[in-house]
Amino acid sequence: MKRSGRRSAAALVVATVTPFPVAAKCAPPDFLTGEQSAIFRAVVATKPAEWFGPDSVALLVQYCRHVATANAVQIEIDRAPLAPDSMPALAALLRIRESETRAILALARSMRLTAQSRLKAETAFNQHVRAADAGREKPWNFGRANPI
After folding, report:
1. Torsion, Cα of 98, 104, 105, 108 (10° steps)
2. In the list 1, 35, 49, 126, which could disulfide-bond 23, CB 3.0-4.6 Å?
């Protein structure tokens, strides 16, 4: 209910002095390795401060561990020789990489980190079409050396 008349100076000061609380971004736990902590910070930096609450930090920790493990497995895959006698070891590494990728994808979806979890199918398709059209040469510029 509104009051008629002028407002007091005290009423105006209370309304302008109370700031909104600013949420701090969560820091990586101490038990993570250096690479895992870097992944943690990189993911947290891409989201608003309130995105990762105390309830989702455990998921984010597991996500970072899986990404670091997948990176290490990929390094081993890149080092593996392509000789017939090394194919069983390479096949085992590829299976590990696939399972890590599945775990990463499941965790990313549950924390809504992927574009698929944030966009409707129509919106994603429209963005894809616009991105494809952006690099295409316009019909009125065909054959021109210096399009304006």
Report:
1. 180
2. 49
